[in-house]
Structure formats: structure tokens, C-alpha cells
């Protein structure tokens, strides 16, 4: 018997970390070098089979720019899963080192305080193709994730490393929950 589970999933993280690029890679198998910054939020859906069950993700790709922060609760409220994205390189002009990792930690705190208690949380260290520009070590992120109830993966929307995997792992954990 194939059970179907609808699951609201929200992507959160600083502007430019690659949230839209991860979704575009996952849902359409595409990558663009000049992805436009999201306004408000964008919606996608994607089904994933795990053993004999199907998880239908209803994906909210939120806008990372600070001016949209107040909209975020609409998207994470009732979410079964959250993927919190930072950029391992922090190659964002005029932003200090580790800024996107620090922002990711703030999202985790906000979810822990205001979100649903059993939301599955994934931490994506994105742009893993840019290893030579790394500013946040895998060890540091892994330790943080373990201590805060998230699972951690390094992803690249550009090369597709771990993109299907992070959504699949999320679906697996949803089914086990
Ligand atoms: P907002 O919508 O403003 O919150 O940003 P976002 O998190 O959706 O980032 P977006 O997907 O727009 O990506 C920002 C830029 O980073 C784009 O120019 C992408 O091409 C680039 N980018 C995204 N993911 C990767 C990646 O894995 N590797 C590399 N090298 N570049 C990436
Ligand atoms: Mg975006």
C-alpha cells in the first residue's frame, strides 16, 4: 500500500546563499549563474518516494533579504521540515566572514522558539563546489548541527552534490517521525 504524506517544507537563510538555486536544481535539474533574488517567496512541489511511501513536498522558497523577515512565520508555521541554508564561502559582497552561518543559527533559534516543536531541520552548507574559498569548516557546522537537533549536509546547487540527498534524507526522517 503506497501511503502519501503531504509535507510543508520551508527554505530559510540569508540572501544569496542559494535557496532558490537548490530548489531549482532539485525540482527542475537546472542551475543558473545569475539567479534573481527572490521577492516574498516562491512555491514549488515535488514528490519523493521512500520505500513504499510517497512524500509530497510543498516547498516554500523564502526571500532572504532582511526586509522580508516579517513574512517568514507564514512560511515556517506548520512546516513539517525546514532546510536552513548558509554559504560555506560567505562570498557575499560587503558582508563579514561567517555572516551567513551566523544568520543560519539565528533561523534555528527562531524556529526553536516559534516553530512547531517536531519540525525536521536540515542545515545545508551550500556552494560546496567553492572549497578553496571556504570560511566555515565542515567540522564546525557538523558540531553545531549535532548540538542543535539538525542534520547537516554540504550541498552544491551548481554541481548537484547532495541536493537530491538532503531532500531525500528529510523525507526519510519525516516518515520515521
Ligand atoms: P534570496 O532569494 O535573495 O534569498 O537568495 P537565494 O538564497 O535564493 O540565492 P540564489 O539561489 O538566488 O543564489 C545566489 C547566487 O549564488 C546566484 O548567483 C547563484 O548562481 C549562486 N549559487 C547558488 N548556489 C550555488 C552553488 O552551489 N555554487 C555556486 N558556485 N554558486 C551558487
Ligand atoms: Mg531566492
From TrEMBL:
For this chain, one GO molecular function annotation is: GTP binding
Q: Does the keyword Glycoprotein apply?
A: no
Q: Where in the cell is it found?
A: Endomembrane system
The alphabetized list of GO BP terms reads: protein transport
Q: Which domain of life does this protein belong to? A: Eukaryota
Task: Indicate yes or no for the key word Lipoprotein.
Answer: yes
Write down any Gene Ontology CC term: endomembrane system
UniProtKB keywords: GTP-binding, Lipoprotein, Membrane, Nucleotide-binding, Prenylation, Protein transport, Transport
State the coiled-coil residue ranges.
none
User: Where does the UniProt entry say this protein principally localizes?
Assistant: membrane
What's its membrane topology? Lipid-anchor
Family that this chain belongs to: Belongs to the small GTPase superfamily. Rab family.
Q: What is this protein called?
A: Ras-related protein
Write down the species: Musa troglodytarum (fe'i banana)
- Full-protein residues shown: 6 to 182 of 211
